[in-house]
TrEMBL record:
It comes from the Bacteria. Its EC number is 4.99.1.9. Its main location: cytoplasm. Fe(2+) binds at H185, E266. Belongs to the ferrochelatase family. The gene is hemH. It is found in: Cytoplasm. This is Coproporphyrin III ferrochelatase. Signal peptide: none annotated. Fe-coproporphyrin III binds at Y15, R32, R48, Y49, Y128. It is an enzyme of class 4 (lyase). Pfam families: Ferrochelatase (PF00762). It comes from Paenibacillus gyeongsangnamensis. Keywords: Cytoplasm, Heme biosynthesis, Iron, Lyase, Metal-binding, Porphyrin biosynthesis.
Length: 313
């Protein structure tokens, strides 16, 4: 008699996004822990979405595609186990708790959680894990988590390919004459007092790419800091661009947002519109590396870390 096939749920967690302009207020209110935004704050966010996509929301579609691609890759590579992927979003439906509940309703008894972000911080990935863990415990679901995967070889391969492609866009310019700026989402400065691994993990990823390509002209910067009245990690990318110009460090800049894995507001607005506008005002030629989205190498990296975590259970 054959053994029943092992079934493992995979909760793929990400920040979430509204699906249409009329959902922005509820989304923003959830981010603000139930406090509605002021009319000015709401209009500012609506303006940003309208500037990048005119009412179409690419992040939701990108995330859907990533979840499907991960499930397909896991089942193709590991036919002895049936992996079923579910979404769990931080600030939109289906929420993290909804994803855990769906797995239980579907009769799953074990699961792995993974966040679509390679670098761990207690304020980011840690928050996702805490919510999923609490719901899984409440419902009796056996669940473990991928905490980080910042140095997975296939992730580094995928990012290195993107930096190489980006550098080729500066025709006739030697790569050492292009300032490469790696970026990630800023977090409140207090994480430094907490010895949070986030900044160090980001530098590890950056240095791995630098070593692969033999880059000599590079630095790290932050972006998309919140407006909360407390200091956030700096320097911000807009300040970095200003410094590059005032100190005459380069005329050409390639931004590689290694802290993000798909196209969304922080990429399509903060970099492609806001940073690009600043660069033009400063007389800089700014390019951005392509996002990972459903890149096969990234899907390989994700499937590897999920499978490894499932094997530890």
């Amino acid at each position: 008699m054959s053994q029943p096939i092992r079934r493992v749920g995979v909760l793929v967690m990400s920040y979430g996004t509204p699906e249409s302009l009329d959902q922005i207020e509820a989304y923003y209110t959830h981010i603000r822990r139930g406090h509605p935004p002021t009319p000015e704050q709401l209009q500012d966010l609506k303006d940003r979405y309208e500037a990048i996509v005119g009412g179409v929301f690419p992040l939701r579609e990108n995330t859907d595609k990533q979840v499907k691609a991960l499930e397909a890759r896991l089942n193709e590579k590991h036919p002895g186990t049936a992996f079923i992927c579910y979404q769990g979003l931080k600030h939109a439906a289906p929420f993290i708790e909804d994803g855990v509940e769906r797995m239980v309703q579907d009769g799953l008894e074990e699961a792995v959680g993974v966040v679509l972000a390679p670098h761990y911080s207690v304020m980011s990935v840690g928050g996702y894990i805490k919510r999923a863990e609490e719901k899984a415990k409440e419902l009796g679901l056996k669940m473990s988590f991928v905490r980080s995967y910042q140095l997975h070889p296939k992730l580094i391969d995928a990012l290195t390919e993107r930096v190489e492609e980006g550098l080729r866009r500066f025709e006739g310019v030697d790569k050492d004459q292009v300032r490469v700026v790696f970026t990630a989402h800023s977090l409140p400065e207090k994480i430094l007092e907490m010895k949070d691994p986030y900044p160090e993990q980001l530098l590890e990823t950056s240095k791995a790419i630098v070593d692969r390509l033999g880059l000599t002209n590079w630095q790290f910067g932050w972006q998309s800091a919140g407006k909360t009245g407390v200091p956030w990690l700096a320097p911000d990318i807009l300040d970095v661009l200003q410094t590059i110009r005032t100190e005459n460090q380069a005329d050409n800049v390639l931004v590689c947002p290694i802290g993000f894995v798909s196209d969304h507001l922080e990429i399509l607005y903060d970099l492609d519109i806001e940073a690009q506008q600043t660069a033009k005002e400063l007389g800089l030629h700014l390019e951005r590396t392509l996002s990972l989205n459903t890149d096969p190498l990234y899907m390989e990296a994700l499937s590897d870390v999920v499978y490894a975590q499932a094997e530890r259970v």
